[in-house]
Amino acid sequence: MKLRVVWVGKTQQEWVRSGIEDYAARIRRYCPLEIGEAREEKASRDEAMRERECERLLKLLPKNARLVLLDEKGTEFTSTEFAAFLGRNRDSGVGEVAFAIGGAYGFSAAFRERAAAVISLSRMTFTHQMVRVFLLEQLYRGFTILNREPYHH
Fold it and tell me: What is the domain range of residue 138?
Protein backbone atom coordinates (compact mmCIF):
# COMPACT_ATOMS: atom_id res chain seq x y z
CA MET A 1 0.00 0.00 0.00
CA LYS A 2 1.18 3.49 -0.83
CA LEU A 3 0.28 6.58 1.21
CA ARG A 4 -0.23 10.08 -0.05
CA VAL A 5 -0.85 13.11 2.17
CA VAL A 6 -2.03 16.33 0.57
CA TRP A 7 -2.91 19.68 2.10
CA VAL A 8 -3.76 23.25 1.25
CA GLY A 9 -1.11 25.91 1.74
CA LYS A 10 2.64 26.02 2.12
CA THR A 11 4.28 24.73 5.26
CA GLN A 12 5.53 27.94 6.84
CA GLN A 13 7.18 27.19 10.17
CA GLU A 14 10.60 25.52 10.16
CA TRP A 15 9.75 23.30 13.14
CA VAL A 16 6.70 22.00 11.25
CA ARG A 17 8.82 21.26 8.16
CA SER A 18 11.32 19.46 10.38
CA GLY A 19 8.57 17.35 11.96
CA ILE A 20 7.12 16.51 8.54
CA GLU A 21 10.54 15.41 7.27
CA ASP A 22 11.21 13.33 10.38
CA TYR A 23 7.92 11.43 10.36
CA ALA A 24 7.87 11.08 6.57
CA ALA A 25 11.25 9.35 6.73
CA ARG A 26 9.99 7.04 9.48
CA ILE A 27 6.83 6.14 7.53
CA ARG A 28 8.84 5.37 4.40
CA ARG A 29 10.42 2.44 6.26
CA TYR A 30 6.99 0.78 6.05
CA CYS A 31 5.55 1.97 2.74
CA PRO A 32 6.00 4.54 -0.02
CA LEU A 33 4.78 8.03 0.93
CA GLU A 34 4.20 11.10 -1.19
CA ILE A 35 3.33 14.54 0.14
CA GLY A 36 1.71 17.30 -1.91
CA GLU A 37 0.78 20.91 -1.28
CA ALA A 38 -2.02 22.72 -3.10
CA ARG A 39 -1.92 26.49 -3.37
CA GLU A 40 -4.16 28.30 -0.89
CA GLU A 41 -6.98 30.39 -2.38
CA LYS A 42 -7.29 34.07 -1.49
CA ALA A 43 -10.95 34.57 -2.40
CA SER A 44 -13.59 36.49 -0.51
CA ARG A 45 -16.33 33.82 -0.48
CA ASP A 46 -16.04 30.64 1.59
CA GLU A 47 -17.64 28.29 -0.98
CA ALA A 48 -15.57 29.66 -3.85
CA MET A 49 -12.40 29.14 -1.79
CA ARG A 50 -13.34 25.56 -0.98
CA GLU A 51 -14.10 24.71 -4.60
CA ARG A 52 -10.86 26.10 -5.99
CA GLU A 53 -8.70 24.59 -3.26
CA CYS A 54 -10.35 21.20 -3.68
CA GLU A 55 -9.85 21.33 -7.44
CA ARG A 56 -6.14 21.81 -6.74
CA LEU A 57 -6.10 18.97 -4.22
CA LEU A 58 -7.84 16.69 -6.71
CA LYS A 59 -5.05 17.29 -9.24
CA LEU A 60 -2.61 15.88 -6.67
CA LEU A 61 -4.53 12.61 -6.34
CA PRO A 62 -4.51 9.56 -8.58
CA LYS A 63 -8.00 8.48 -9.63
CA ASN A 64 -7.74 5.09 -7.93
CA ALA A 65 -6.62 6.34 -4.49
CA ARG A 66 -8.93 5.77 -1.53
CA LEU A 67 -9.52 9.29 -0.22
CA VAL A 68 -9.67 9.99 3.51
CA LEU A 69 -10.54 13.52 4.61
CA LEU A 70 -9.45 15.07 7.88
CA ASP A 71 -12.34 17.05 9.31
CA GLU A 72 -13.34 18.10 12.81
CA LYS A 73 -16.70 16.32 12.36
CA GLY A 74 -15.15 13.04 11.20
CA THR A 75 -14.89 9.72 13.01
CA GLU A 76 -12.50 9.75 15.94
CA PHE A 77 -10.16 6.84 16.54
CA THR A 78 -7.81 5.85 19.30
CA SER A 79 -4.31 5.24 17.99
CA THR A 80 -4.94 1.49 18.10
CA GLU A 81 -8.20 1.88 16.17
CA PHE A 82 -6.44 4.06 13.60
CA ALA A 83 -3.75 1.39 13.21
CA ALA A 84 -6.51 -1.16 12.58
CA PHE A 85 -8.02 1.20 9.97
CA LEU A 86 -4.64 1.36 8.21
CA GLY A 87 -4.28 -2.40 8.46
CA ARG A 88 -7.72 -3.03 6.95
CA ASN A 89 -6.87 -0.81 4.00
CA ARG A 90 -3.50 -2.50 3.54
CA ASP A 91 -4.87 -6.03 3.91
CA SER A 92 -7.84 -5.47 1.58
CA GLY A 93 -5.51 -4.75 -1.31
CA VAL A 94 -6.02 -0.99 -1.53
CA GLY A 95 -3.18 0.28 -3.70
CA GLU A 96 -3.08 3.81 -2.37
CA VAL A 97 -4.69 5.72 0.49
CA ALA A 98 -4.67 9.51 0.24
CA PHE A 99 -5.23 11.68 3.31
CA ALA A 100 -6.35 15.27 2.64
CA ILE A 101 -6.13 18.26 4.97
CA GLY A 102 -8.31 21.10 3.72
CA GLY A 103 -7.91 24.83 3.91
CA ALA A 104 -9.38 27.23 6.45
CA TYR A 105 -12.94 26.60 5.24
CA GLY A 106 -12.70 22.85 4.72
CA PHE A 107 -13.74 20.84 1.67
CA SER A 108 -16.25 21.39 -1.12
CA ALA A 109 -19.34 19.16 -1.30
CA ALA A 110 -18.07 17.51 -4.49
CA PHE A 111 -14.72 16.66 -2.89
CA ARG A 112 -16.49 15.24 0.18
CA GLU A 113 -18.57 12.96 -2.06
CA ARG A 114 -15.39 11.42 -3.45
CA ALA A 115 -14.13 10.49 0.03
CA ALA A 116 -14.22 6.91 1.29
CA ALA A 117 -13.88 8.09 4.90
CA VAL A 118 -13.82 11.24 7.01
CA ILE A 119 -11.78 11.19 10.19
CA SER A 120 -10.93 13.60 12.98
CA LEU A 121 -7.68 13.70 14.91
CA SER A 122 -9.40 15.42 17.83
CA ARG A 123 -12.43 17.46 18.79
CA MET A 124 -9.98 20.24 19.62
CA THR A 125 -9.01 22.80 17.00
CA PHE A 126 -5.41 22.82 15.78
CA THR A 127 -3.69 24.95 13.18
CA HIS A 128 -3.54 23.41 9.71
CA GLN A 129 0.24 23.53 10.03
CA MET A 130 0.28 21.44 13.22
CA VAL A 131 -2.22 18.90 11.89
CA ARG A 132 0.30 17.95 9.20
CA VAL A 133 2.79 16.76 11.81
CA PHE A 134 0.08 15.18 13.99
CA LEU A 135 -1.29 13.14 11.08
CA LEU A 136 2.16 11.93 10.02
CA GLU A 137 3.00 11.00 13.60
CA GLN A 138 -0.21 8.99 13.89
CA LEU A 139 0.49 7.24 10.59
CA TYR A 140 3.93 6.29 11.88
CA ARG A 141 2.47 5.21 15.23
CA GLY A 142 -0.11 3.12 13.37
CA PHE A 143 2.58 1.22 11.51
CA THR A 144 4.54 0.58 14.69
CA ILE A 145 1.37 -0.79 16.32
CA LEU A 146 0.68 -3.04 13.32
CA ASN A 147 4.25 -4.30 13.49
CA ARG A 148 4.15 -4.75 17.27
CA GLU A 149 7.03 -2.34 17.79
CA PRO A 150 7.55 -0.55 21.13
CA TYR A 151 7.05 3.09 19.95
CA HIS A 152 3.38 3.17 21.00
CA HIS A 153 4.25 2.76 24.67
Answer: 2-11+30-152
